[in-house]
Amino acid sequence: MVADYRYSYVKQIRTDLSAAIYPLQYLVSLPVQTGQWLSQNFSTRGQLLNEMAQLRERNLLLQVSLQKYEDLKSENERLRTLLDSSIKLGERMLLTEVLAVDLDPFARKIMINKGTSQGVFNGQPLLDAYGVLGQVTNTGPQSSTVMLITDPSHALPVQVVRTGLRTIAMGMGATNRLKLLYLPNNSGIKVGDLLVTSGLGGQFPAGYPVGTVAEFTPDIGQPYAQVQAIPSAHLERNREVLLVWTSEEKQKAASGGGEEKP
């Protein structure tokens, strides 16, 4: 100790020895440091994986909620449009929902959630916000079957707004096509002409939109032209539709001649 205190060469020796054994110290401590680094790294990676899983779950929940929001927004817009349509028409309307669609490829029918308990009757017109959908063909206490205007068995008296010409719109079994019957080759029909209900036969009130002429093909070998129209109503996209009572039908119900309930 005295030599270490009095002579500085011992300090130099100690310094040299420290430098010489540093690699050995580093090698001895390396496994411990490596273990600490790996432990910290795996812990951080596990936390990140856990946070990513939580974020994915939250993102999925938010996407589902957004889809529901869009559906509710679309439903609200449809109901507003239907309400506006019923006010313009000035008839008694009853909102109803589509329960089921007939899967028969040769038929166009739907089932709605209103029946005789709500005053629904056979032959009653059904509309959406854009035009005529069809008519009730079978009623039950709480549900009814509706034949759409595109059904091959459905025929509807219509009138061309531009010329006043009357004809029959017949279903073709297709989702978006009607054929117009008994129109001469020189009838003057044009693509784009609007068709509305003529009121003939008393089944449908006059003036409801039915469709727009899409094709007009004169047939020189036949007395009548080949004419097709696109329906105005959104036949395959509706979830909410309107049942209609005309003034005459309301009067019949009031006098006991119908099933309608106020």
Can you walk through the features of this model?
The protein is 36% helix and 27% strand. The protein has three helices and twelve strands. The protein has helices at residues 2-6, 9-89, 247-254, and strands at 92-101, 109-112, 125-127, 132-139, 144-148, 155-160, 166-171, 178-181, 194-197, 209-217, 226-231, 240-245. It has a six-stranded antiparallel barrel. It has a six-stranded antiparallel barrel with strand order 6-7-8-11-10-9. The relative contact order is 0.13.
Major β-sheet annotation: 6 strands, antiparallel, barrel
Secondary-structure element order, N to C: HHEEEEEEEEEEEEH
Task: Pick out the low-confidence regions.
Answer: 253-262
Helix proportion = 25-40%
List keywords for this structure.
3 domains, Thrombin, subunit H, 3 helices, 6-stranded antiparallel beta barrel, alpha+beta, 262 residues, disordered C terminus
